[in-house]
Amino acid sequence: MHTVNLDQLVGRRVLSKEGHCIGHLEEIVAAAHGDELLVTEYHVGIFAAFERLAASSIGTAILDLVRMRHRKGIYRIPWDKLDISDPTRPTVCISEQELAALQSSPSVKR
Question: How far apart are CA 28 and CA 62, in angstroms?
């Protein structure tokens, strides 16, 4: 098993299979499984950082003010679709066309 420290990944540029930068890794989502946490997905893109702000009413107001709340721009990449074997160059394992299907609007929790 290969171990990667999360602090080596967050903030890194993520590359498409074709070698293009699709954004920075902003968030790693994990779920409890017994005594362990298992990564379920990675959030990549400029709006992924803003998504965390949207969890608060202040964050939601800021996103509404700059009209960013409902824009697309977050790639929700399943854990098995991101190659992190080289933490300095995380790369998506699917084509840019398939990647477009993973793009979504920021979710807002109220």
Answer: 23
Fold of the domain spanning 6-104: SH3 type barrels. (2.30.30)
- Locate the domains of the chain by residue range: 6-104
* pTM for the structure as a whole: 0.73
pLDDT in 10s for each residue of the chain, 110 residues: 567 888 889 889 999 999 999 988 988 999 999 999 999 999 898 666 656 555 555 655 665 665 554 445 688 999 999 999 999 999 999 988 888 888 764 444 43
CA angle in degrees (0–180, nearest 5) for 30-53-95: 55
